[in-house]
Design goal:
It is a single chain. It is built from three helices and no strands. It is mostly helical. The longest helix is centred in the C-terminal third of the chain and has 24 residues.
Length: about 55
Amino acid sequence: MNFFNNLKPMHLYLSSIICIVGSSLLKNDYHTFYIVFLVLGVILFFWGMTKRIKK
C-alpha cells in the first residue's frame, strides 16, 4: 500500500491520459473495456488532483 501513497500527481495524470486515450481507441469494439478505462481514467485524474491540492 505504501507504493500508492508515494505516487506523484504527475504519474496519476499520465495514467489518466493513457486510460482515456485507450478507452477512446476501444470504444467501437469493446464497449465494456471502454467504460472500465474511462471510469479508471476519471478516478486517476481526480486522485491526482486531490494529491496535488493537499501539497
